[in-house]
Amino acid sequence: GPIEGAAGGDTPGPALHVLRVCVSAACAAAPAPTPAPLASLARQAIDSFLSLRPGAAAAARAAEARFGGGGAAAESGAAAEDAAEEAEIREERRVLARLRLLATLLPASDVIAQAEPILEQARRLSLTVEMSKLAAPLDTALCAVLGVLLPAAAASAASLPVVLAHSRWMAASVERALRRAASGDGDGGDGWAAVVSGCSALVEVFGKVPSLDTSEHGAGAAAAAAAAALLAGAGAASMKAVDSEALSEGVGAAADRCERLQRALLLLLTKRAHGVARLRWSQRALLDALTALRSMPAVQLPAAAAIASLSPLIGARSSPVRFGALALFERLQSAEAEAGAAAASEEGAEEEGDADEPLPLRFLFGGAAQTVAGRRAAADGEAMVALDRLEELMGDAADAEARMLAWSAALALLAHARPTAAARVSAGWKHSGLPGFLNETLLPLLPLARPPPGSGAASLAAPTSLGESDPPPGAAEVAVAVFAALLSRVPALARHWYTSELSRAAHAAVARYTELHVTPALLRREAEAISAAPSSGDDFVVKASIGARSVTATYSYEGTYMQIVLRLDRAHPLRAVEVECTQRAGVSDARWRKWQRTISTMLLAQNGSLRDALALFKENVDRVFEGVEECPICYAIVHGTTRQLPKLSCRTCHNKFHAACLYKWFSSSQKSSCPLCQTAWG
To answer: 244-276 and 191-207 are packed helices; what angle lies between their axes, rounded to 10 degrees?
Structure first.
C-alpha cells in the first residue's frame, strides 16, 4: 500500500527504487527460489493490475456530463467538473502506480503463466492512454512492463503466439512513446530507459518472425499457431490453417513495424546521446538500444550526418556501448559516398574558393554550396555538437580505447563526406591530430615485435569486426584494426607520418609489420574492389596481380592501345606507388607526363585509392578522344581532387580552367587576371 501510494507520483520515488534493487538481487541469485515476501508482492501486483478497469473514471465523467441534472446541480457545475477531473487524475495515478509496481515485481513471478492476461489488460489500457492527462508516464510504464514481460514470454514456444497476437497495439504504443521521448515530451528522469527496454524487447520478438516454418517439415503445430497469431496481430482475420502466402503477408507486416520502431529508436538515440553517454545508470539502456539497431538493414540507416549525432556514445562509460555505437558508423552504405561525389561535381568556384584551408571535423557535412564562413555560421545542430565531442575524444590520450574508436568512427564518416570537405578535414589531421595519436596511443599498442597471426588480414577482411565483436576485443586487437583502417582510408597521411615522424628503429619495425600483416590483405581488398567495379566495356580492361604487386589497365580506341601499370612497394602504402606507361598512342609525351604527375599526386598526397587513380586515368583519356581541352594551369582535363572538367572560361581568350586551379592562381599571384592573356577576370 505505501509503495503503491508513492509510485503514482511524477517520479517513481525511492521506495520503488529500493524494491527494484531487491528484485534484481533476487533474480541474480537464480536458480535459487524467489524469496517468499517478494513472490507474494509480485502476485499482489499482478492481481491489482488485472483488477483495474481502464477508462472507468473517464466513462463515469462523460456520463455525468451527458446525463447530469439541472437546477442546483447546474449551479455547481463548475465545481462538480473540477471534482470529476481530480477524481479522474487520481484514478490515472492509481493505474500508473500499479503499472510501475508490475514492471518492478514481474521478474519475481512466473512471467510465462501470466503473459496472456497481462497483455490483454495492457491492450485495454493502451486504448485509453492517448486521451489521458498522464499519457507520457503511462506510456513509459507500459513500455517498462513490456520490457520485462516480452523476453521471457517470447522465449517459450507456447507463449510466443500470445505475444505475436498482441504485436499490433504493442508496436503502436512503443513507437508513440519513442517519438514522445525524442521530442522531449516523455516521462522525465530515466523514463526514456524504460521506453528503450520495451522497444528492444519488441524488436527481439519481431526478429523471431522470419524463422517461423509452417511447412510439413517445419516446427508443426507450435509454428502454425505462432503464424496464425502473427496474422491476427497484423490485423488479418483468424484462420485455422496458415498458408505460405498469408504467412508472407504477416512476416512483411512484422518487418514493417520492426523497421518503424528501429527508426524511432535511432531518432531517440540521436537526441539523447550527448546527455546520457557518461551517466552510469544509462549504460544498460544504451546497450539495449544499440543491440536492437544491430538488425536494422544497412540500406535503412540514415545519412552519415545523422549517425554522426551518436558520436558521444564512442566515449560512453561502458565498452560494449562504445563498440555498439561504432558498429553503426561502420555499416554506413558506400552508395552515400558516391552520391557525395556526384554532388561535389556540381560545386562552383565559391565552394572551391577555400580549397586549401584545413577544416575541423564539425564541417564534414556542410552544405555543398556554402562557403566556409557560411558553414561556420550554420554549424549548430546535434551533429555538429556531436562531432565536436568526437574530435575531443580523438585527442584524449587518457582513454586509449575511446581515442582509438573515435578515430575509427571519424575514418568511417570521412569516407562518406564530399571529396572536397574530406580532403580539407584530413589536411587538418596531417600535422595536428594524426601524428600525436599514432605516436602516443597506437604505436605503443601495436604488436610490432610478435604480431598475432593474421591480425592485420582479419581486420581488413572484416571491417565491421570491431563494432560487432562480442565480447569487445582487447586493446591490441583494436590498435591493429585501426592501423589497418588508417592505411586503407588515409594512406597519404600514414605515409607522411611514416617518413617524417618515426625514429629509425620504429621506422623499420612499422615497415616490417606492414609488409607482413597489412599489405597482403590491403592488396587483396584493392584487387577485389577493382574486380567488383562495374565493367567499362571492352575498351578499358583492368587486371590486378597480387603476387607481382601490380595493377595493369589497358585502354583501347579504334585499334590503338594505351597501357598504364601501377607497381606497389612491399610495404604499400607506406612507400610511393610507381606509375609507368608501357604503351601510348594518340597522346604526346608532354601530356602523358602531366597525367603521370596527376595520378602520382593523387596516390601520394590525396589519399586516393588505386581504383580512384585508374578512374582518373580513364576519364582523362575519354575526354581527350571526345575533344575536351585540358586546363592550362594543371594541364589535366579532370581535376585530381574535385573530378571537375575545366568550366570557367575567360571572356577574352576563351580558355577554360578548373575552378580550384583558378582560385589557387588568384591566391598565389595576388591578382585576378587571366593566367594566359592577363585580362582582368570579370
So the answer is: 150
pLDDT tens-digit readout, 562-597: 888 888 899 988 988 888 887 766 567 777 787 788
Alpha helices in 418-567 (DSSP H): 419-432, 434-437, 443-445, 455-461, 465-468, 475-489, 491-500, 504-517, 519-532
| Residues in a beta bridge with 13 | none
Average predicted confidence (pLDDT) for the chain: 77
Q: Of 206, 465, 461, 427, whose CA–CA distance to 323 is shortest?
A: 465
Which of 459, 266, 490 has its CA nearest to residue 394? 490
Does residue 347 come out as left (phi exceeding 0), alpha (psi in the -120 to 50 range) or beta? beta
Average pLDDT over residues 135-164: 86
Among 574, 583, 471, 479, which residue's Cα sits nearest to residue 522? Answer: 574
Cα 573 from Cα 608, distance rounded (Å): 11
Neighbours of 457 (CB within 10 A): 20
Instruction: Could you list the beta-strand ranges (E) of 178-279.
Output: none
Structure-block grid coordinates of residue 659: 575552378
Percent of the chain having pLDDT more than 70? 74
Q: Express each pLDDT in 75-107 by its tens digit.
A: 566 676 777 777 777 888 888 888 888 888 888
d(C-alpha 515, C-alpha 521), whole Å:
10
Task: Check: pTM over 0.85? Answer yes or no.
Answer: no
Q: What is the pLDDT of residues 309-326, one digit of tens each?
A: 888 999 999 999 999 999
Read off φ and ψ for residue 331, nearest 5 degrees. Answer: -95, 5
Residue whose C-alpha is closest to residue 420's, from 466, 375, 468: 375
- State residue 232's pLDDT score: 59
| Residue in 92, 88, 84 with CA at minimum distance from that of residue 138 | 92
> Is-contact 142 178, C-beta < 8 A?
no
b/e for 287-299, b at 16 or more Cβ within 10 A?
A: bbbbbbbeebeee
- Give CA separation, 542 vs 440, 555, 606, in Å: 40, 9, 22
495-513: buried (b, 16+ CB within 10 Å) or exposed (e) per residue?
bbbbeebbeeeeeebbbeb
Residue 552: CB atoms within 10 Å? 18
Residue 81, helix vs strand vs coil: helix
Task: Tell which residue, 562, 154, 69, 609, has the closest CA to residue 341.
Answer: 609
Query: Rounded to whole angstroms, how far apart are CA atoms 619 and 637?
Result: 8
Q: Which residues partner with 553 through β-bridges?
A: 542, 564
Q: Among 30, 662, 9, 123, which residue's Cα sits nearest to residue 349?
A: 662
Report the alpha-carbon distance of residue 348 to residue 667 in Å, rounded.
17
Listing DSSP states for 250-271 in one string gives HHHHHHHHHHHHHHHHHHHHHH
Segment 502-529, tens digit of pLDDT: 888 888 899 999 988 888 888 888 888 7
Helix H, strand E, coil C: the string for 470-512 is CCCCCHHHHHHHHHHHHHHHCHHHHHHHHHHCCCHHHHHHHHH
Residues 622-650 pLDDT 10s: 877 777 788 888 877 778 777 677 889 99
For residue 121, give every residue at least 6 positions away whose Cβ sits within 8 Å of its Cβ, in sequence order, or none: 49, 50, 52, 54
Residue with cell 515530451: 185
